[in-house]
Amino acid sequence: MGIDTVVMEVSSQALMMHRTSGFVFDYGVFTNLSPDHIGENEHKDFEDYLHCKSLLFRQCRTGIINGDDEHADEILKDHTCDTEFFGLGEKNDIRAENIKLLKENGFIGVNFDVKGLMDFNTDTAFPGRFSVYNALCAIAVSRHFNVTEDDMRISLRQARVKGRIELIPVSPDFVLMIDYAHNAMALESLLKTLREYEPQRLVCLFGCGGNRSKLRRFEMGEVSGRLADLTIITSDNPRFEEPHAIMEDIETGIKKTDGKYIMIQDRKEAIAYSISHAKKGDVIVLAGKGHEDYQEIRGNKYPMDERELIKEITG
Fold first, then answer.
1. What pLDDT is recorded for position 185?
2. Of the residues 162, 237, 258, 311, which has the maximum number of CB atoms within 10 A of its CB?
3. Hey, what CATH topology would domain 1-87 get?
4. Which of 228, 202, 194 has the alpha carbon at shortest distance from 101?
């Protein structure tokens, strides 16, 4: 078939159920860990979750580890592989120094120096300090495949992931991005990251899915009201609920704060409003839909890609 390399995500469930038993991976990667997938049909507790994650490093030849993560030592308990660490701390084999946040001509990202086993300066087209860790991880892996420093620099500047902090070039005067953040924790992390860039205004446009927890709506409204300068409440995937009722639940959360907001049910109209009212230096984030290219209404999925909507609005 001509395939010489396979990149595989190996979940804690896969390791727990021995679905990859018999594999010997050349490289195993650990980025970070926080409580997740804990419940009756997954892991009984965090300790079990962590233990299952650690099993990867008993069936790979080289472990590439985020040395700054508080669980790094536990992840490597009883490991049988060689180890290599990335991060910001001095102890790491590949580390970032002199981190600078970039904001220019509708672009936001990060610039930093790579030190240790490699030595060069690079940018990444993803905002926030957490993006530095992701870039270091990619660099650490690419080094083993003899990727040149020049190619690493070019790739980090040009890399895009659909719907994940995806910059949409519209104007040099403001930043417009699409992100999949669709719960309070993800939205808070995103908005705090964007706050570091000191925008003229931070504008957050989002809705919430129907036939899902109402608590999520209250929480997301409160988060956006607290962290954004302006929230545009709109429709997401209403499913079998009335869109305006969902928006009113979000409004309940935002009213717990002093945040300014406006409600525009039609998502295209809401996006058009965010663009036409943008001010120089604004950062605008369209949250919740991300990579999705549809809107689900009463059991039907209708085509709706925010990238296409933006083209129609600005074209």
1. 86
2. 237
3. UDP-N-acetylmuramoyl-L-alanine:D-glutamate ligase (3.40.1190)
4. 194
Instruction: Tell me which residue has tokens 């990619």.
Output: 138
Core vs surface per residue 140-155: b (16+ CB within 10 A) or e? bbbbeeeeebeebbeb
pLDDT tens sequence across 167-206 = 999 999 999 999 999 989 889 999 999 999 999 999 999 9
Q: Which helix (H) or strand (E) holds 301?
A: strand 300-303
Per DSSP, what are the bridge partners of residue 154? none
Q: Is the dihedral of CA 176, 181, 182, 183 positive or negative?
A: negative
What is the chain's mean pLDDT, rounded?
95
Burial of 1 (0-12, 13-18, 19+ CB in 10 A): exposed
> From residue 51, how far is each of 14, 40, 46 by CA, in Å?
13, 17, 8
pLDDT tens track for 231-290: 999 999 999 999 999 999 999 999 999 999 999 999 999 999 999 999 999 999 999 999
Among candidate residues 274, 279, 285, the one with its CA nearest the CA of residue 314:
274
DSSP secondary structure string for all residues of 146-205: T--HHHHHHHHHH---TTSSEE---BTTBEEEEE---SHHHHHHHHHHHHTT--S-EEEE
- Domain coordinates in residue numbering, the chain: 1-87, 96-158, 166-314
Q: Quickly name the fold that domain 166-314 has.
A: Protein-Tyrosine Phosphatase; Chain A (3.90.190)
pTM of the model: 0.80
With a cut of 80, say whether residue 303 has pLDDT above it. Answer: yes
